[in-house]
Amino acid sequence: MAKLSLIFALYIATLCVLRTDANIAAGENTPLFRDLCALVALADHQIVESHEAASAISQAQEILQLNMTISEDAWRLMFRKKADGTEWHEEMPARYSNHAEWKALWPAWLKSAKAAKDDESAKAVLKRFGGRELTPQQKKALWKRIQPIAARALAAITTLEELRKAEESEAAKQAQKTIQEAVYGEAKTSAETLTTGGTKLIKGSAKSNTGAACSGSGSTHPASTVVATLLCICSTSSDEQKACVNPSTPLTQWTDGQDGAVSKWDEFKKHCVVNSQATASGPEIPHRLAAIRESLKSSWGSAYLGAFRQTNCEGDQGNGICVQYTGYDAKTPTAFEAVDWVKNLTKTATALEQAEEAKKKSAIIGQQTKQEIEATKAEALIASLETEVQAEKIQPVGSQPPTSSLEKQLKAENECNAAGDDQKKCKDLEGKGCKYDASKTAGQKCTLDEEAKKAAQKAKEETEGKDGKTNTNTTGSNSFAIDRAPLLLAVLLF
To answer: pLDDT tens digits for 153-195?
Structure first.
């Protein structure tokens, strides 16, 4: 029994040796040909840019615009460089540096303040939420009611801005162009004429035969495109022309390398048919690349894609109808991974995958924000029906609730700032505590003097002392909203 097993093992080993020494058979590279053809087809696939995050941001901004519209005048005026709204503080002024948490929120607040800069703008905002005119008391009541909603809208915008970076990344925007260049070496489709001479399909110069066109390493590899790779694994300089396909009319030999690459592709592309609309580019690229990577075979310091027997990839059925990647190391496979078409398709696949994931997450937030808008409309209706409201004066999410003294200080500062760098106008406002300081930043030389600020601060402290406590729900953070309404949108996604 042992003797029979030994004889059988020797027989199998002999078959393997014979198979290795045998000429390359018809159809041996067909599976690889199909994977490469699928990548070629993606050059014709229309990739539509998505803007789901931007759309959801716009919806959330509507809530913040309403929040700003019904806020106290002193708060809204704080964002203006000039009282008439012709100039704005695009960045948080240094005088508010003691409110460190405001800096991150300033851009969103500023955008809302600009949207509610005048009565007509305010009416337009209110119209979107029911169209009712509200009394000052009703506005205060509504403002208080929507704070948890505004907090979630602000958190949603922060999350969506990050998602938009992935969804609208430059790599995602350029995906179609990158795919076409990876396939043809230039941004063209299958219907367009390729550059003559094969200089775009095959990298470098003097690649005058199959062996020269199909051997190299990394970023300098001549077979730098999907089409060039396909030609190397399907075309031969010998009699066997059926490594990939078996047409009724025999294919011609490829012996002139780069010069004949375009005409050779014209002969092959009629057999390279894949429905380019069948699959999305994002998942299709990594799927095909994985199959191609699995086809790689390494031997004596090189890797080979396609049928290889010995010596090189010169298109000979007794040696190799393949692509050779010299200096290949499985641990650091840059000889293959750094080839132009492989590297660029890999990066593009990652960008498209991230864009699709961001799109899905943004769509979820967008649906939730639509529900928040409907809830805000309901709150606006309730507020419009209230006739007597005892509403305390508080300010938007992420800041200290303004006491009357702080409101007065903000209003006084805005009046001073409105004078800009005009020393005469500033002097006329001295009775209101304004002082001209030439050392201040341009546009802010007229400012509230320190004595007036100290007086306002003292009044604030005295007010808090009478209350016996400081409202800690919002001190130094966004906790006013966070304590009452967790930031569900971000939590659901991350």
So the answer is: 999 999 999 999 999 999 999 999 999 999 999 999 999 999 9
Q: Which residue has tokens 């341009």?
A: 442
Sheet hosting strand 215-216, strand order edge to edge: 215-216, 320-326, 302-308, 297-299
Q: Percentage of the chain with pLDDT > 90?
A: 46
- Distance (Å, rounded) from C-alpha 413 to C-alpha 431? 13
Q: Could you tell me whether strands 320-326 and 215-216 are parallel, antiparallel, or unpaired per DSSP bridges?
A: parallel
Distance from C-alpha of 148 to C-alpha of 202, rounded to nearest angstrom: 61
Which DSSP string corresponds to 77-92? HTTBSSTTSSSB-SS-
Rg from Cα positions in the chain: 35
Best CA proximity match to 341, nearest among 175, 181, 170, 173? 181
Q: Are 244 and 31 in contact (CB under 8 A)?
A: no
CA dihedral defined by 480, 485, 490, 492, rounded to 10 degrees? 160
The predicted model scores a pTM of 0.73
Q: Let me know: does 77 contact 128? Beta carbons within 8 Å.
A: no
